[in-house]
Specification:
By secondary structure, the protein is α+β, with helices and mostly antiparallel strands. It contains 16 helices and 41 strands.
């Protein structure tokens, strides 16, 4: 038996944190590695020890075998867990571990090599009678070989690169006359992505579903499977939503595909945790075909853990020690249903382009059946250097409907402020009729994605945010009416206005009154409060509400038109995170003016200080004629400059001087309308 007291995790982000969690539970010392960019990352904070391995680019740190081996030796680690990605399926890395008497918590290098090449993998599993998709796959296939074989395979066909995955170099071809040109493109892409332009050809399965089986094997010849996962909801071959078990398979097919996965593992002498991926026709689910084997832990492994109650990293540790599997096939049972959403730093409304920035606020969901695997905290920097997946939100329920409902609620209460993420898009997918019905295929997501429109922040959330922001500034006990920032003017009250931005749109909220009794108006533009341009002429009319708000323990009780609801509201400077029953939203306060609208003069020409600050510049002189929208002066507050502009045409009267400190709400300029002069 191998004695393991210290394990180095050769990865980063959420998978490193997830592995470290089990190591801690098992009483094993965890060692993190980190690049310059990850010096303050969550996985570094969570580990018992941490070793710096180089510059920020992965090719100079996480992908350098010698640096990982050196880190293991320096920290006294007896074993290395590779996570997924990076070096997890690198045969040379597995061999380097062996050469340095370090236990690689993965399969033998020979298994990685065989399964890493799709042609040799196909030959290996066929030797164990595992069904494969009709096609041609041998070493050294020429374009002529492939073209000649295509008619017998049957169109449509799928060109696939032998040396890699992730959809790179893959091309679906419908007609023989289009095949030659597609082969040229596929070889070029394969050579660029993998350094190998070897190709093979398969029949394209109609309405394909991507179903994979989790297997675990020990060094004593025992191989078990832990059921299947449905991974058909993917965009350009990248998975987004995964679930276990698949709604497609019956018990007979489930047992057959599980045994086929075990045979695939046996074909290469597999040891450790791995995943065998199959393509299954939605129209003929009893027919399944081997696609490839991932010789590592998968991103989506939590859904298997949720339905089986088995910790896969714990099993990996047992196998690494040389023990027999503590679980037999007959001990594996699937209870309920689990579904997972990957939270990516991307913009679904803009072609899913990667996003980045600093996580300014983070809200992770919790509750019955909810699990979050995350690699970020508030303050984390999200860059383009690494994979854009930030976390995974996983839900478990008694059945598929309950699991989906729980995941939807969990995503509604997930916030990664400061960085654009795809949580709203995932909710859009979960609401799709075909997804709810379990009628999936690998092309479904790409078909429905063009219909996605980001959901808007509800008025109730905007009212809650504005009222709480003002409520935080309201005195709790005072006898002086001058202490209240209610925009009071001689003989009347002027509303306070706050413009809130959710990253996509902004809305103006006008609050007149006090937290205990206010009239609140919400709209893109509010008549008489700010200038509407022609492009926004189709905006809906402003909405008016009677509202009150008060703290109730850790939450706020908001009453709108007589209906009370409860909210969690976090106000941090210009950032406001507000959460209710229907979701959580991150808002940014763009400008606030007591008696003015978003930094502009109000209806009677008063420009008020948006917050306590210092006047640092006058853009016009006293007595100048100004037009609506023209900069008048600049106030510095909270280390930010706020340019205040004219809201109407007229003659300006300056009521302050450069360098003067001004309190929130004070009139610092007044514009007299031109017709009054």
């Amino acid at each position: 038996m191998n004695h393991i007291t210290t394990v180095l995790v050769a990865n980063r982000g959420e998978i490193a944190c997830r592995v470290i969690r089990t190591l801690r539970e098992q009483g094993i010392t965890s060692v993190a590695v980190y690049s310059d960019a990850d010096a303050g990352a969550l996985h570094v904070r969570e580990a018992d020890l941490a070793v710096h391995i180089g510059p920020s680019p992965a090719r100079e740190s996480y992908l350098v075998i010698d640096k990982i081996i050196d880190a293991a030796k320096r920290s006294g680690a007896q074993a290395i867990h590779p996570g997924y990605g990076f070096l997890s399926e690198n045969a040379a890395f597995a061999k380097a571990c062996e050469d340095n008497d370090i236990i690689f918590m993965g399969p033998p290098a020979s298994a990685i090599e065989t399964m890493g090449d799709k042609i040799s993998a196909r030959a290996a599993v066929e030797s164990r009678d595992v069904p494969t998709v009709p096609g041609i796959s041998r070493v050294g296939l020429t374009d002529e070989d492939i073209i000649n074989a295509a008619p017998d395979i049957g169109f449509p066909v799928l060109i696939k690169p032998s040396a890699g995955g992730g959809g790179k170099g893959m091309h679906r071809v419908e007609k023989l006359e289009d095949l030659a040109a597609a082969l040229v493109t596929a070889r070029r892409e394969a050579a660029s992505a993998f350094g190998d332009d070897s190709l093979f050809l398969e029949h394209f399965v109609d309405t394909p579903r991507h179903i994979e089986v989790q297997i675990v094997a020990d060094s004593h010849g025992n191989v078990i499977h832990l059921g299947e996962r449905e991974c058909s909801l993917q965009r350009r071959h990248q998975k987004v939503i995964e679930e276990a078990p698949s709604a497609l398979l019956d018990e007979k097919t489930r047992a057959e595909i599980g045994e086929a996965a075990c045979d695939a593992a046996r074909s290469v002498g597999y040891v450790g945790a791995g995943t065998v991926e199959f393509i299954v026709s939605a129209k003929n689910p009893e027919r399944f075909f081997f696609m490839e084997m991932n010789t590592r832990l998968q991103v989506e492994h939590p859904v298997t853990e949720m339905v089986t109650g088995i910790d896969l990293v714990e099993l990996q540790l047992a196998v690494a020690r040389g023990e027999e599997l503590p679980v037999a096939q007959e001990d594996v049972t699937l209870t309920g249903h689990s579904i997972e959403a990957r939270v990516y730093a991307e913009d679904p409304e803009n072609g899913f382009l990667p996003t980045g920035g600093t996580v300014t606020a983070l809200a992770e969901p919790s509750g019955t059946g909810i699990r979050v695997d995350s690699g970020i905290v508030a303050g984390s920097e999200v860059t383009s250097l690494y994979d854009p997946m930030l976390m995974k939100v996983i839900a478990h329920g008694a059945d598929r409907d309950e699991a989906m409902d729980r995941l939807d609620r969990a995503l509604a209460n997930t916030i990664v402020a400061g960085v654009g993420v795809n949580t709203d898009f995932c909710r859009f997918l979960l609401a799709d009729e075909e997804v709810r019905a379990g009628c999936l295929d690998t092309g479904l997501l790409d078909r429905v994605a063009p219909d996605y429109v980001a959901s808007s922040v509800p008025d109730q959330a905007l009212v809650a945010a504005a009222m709480a922001w003002l409520g935080e500034r309201w005195p709790t006990e005072t006898s002086s009416p001058w202490a209240y920032p209610d925009g009071w003017r001689p003989g009347r009250h002027i509303a306070s206005h706050i413009r809130l931005d959710d990253g996509k749109n902004d809305q103006l909220v006008a609050v007149e009154g006090t937290p205990s009794s206010a009239t609140v108006i919400v709209g893109k533009h509010v008549a008489g409060l700010d200038k509407t341009d022609g492009d926004d002429a189709d905006q809906p009319e402003p909405r008016e509400y009677a509202a009150s708000i008060r703290r109730n323990g850790e939450r706020w009780q908001l009453t709108i038109d007589g209906l009370a609801s409860y909210w969690t509201i976090d106000v941090a400077g210009e950032d406001i995170v507000v959460g209710g029953n229907d979701g959580t939203w991150a808002l940014k306060q763009k400008a606030t003016v007591a008696g003015g609208a978003g930094g502009e003069a109000d209806a009677d020409g008063i420009i008020a200080a948006p917050m306590p600050g210092t006047v640092i510049a006058l853009s016009v002189a006293d007595g100048d004629t100004v037009t609506a929208g023209q900069p008048v002066l600049v106030v510095e507050a909270m280390k930010m400059e706020h340019t205040l502009t004219a809201g109407i045409d007229g003659v300006v009267s300056i009521k302050c001087a450069a360098g003067q400190q001004v309190p929130a709400g004070e009139a610092i300029a007044v514009i007299t309308p031109a017709e009054d002069n």
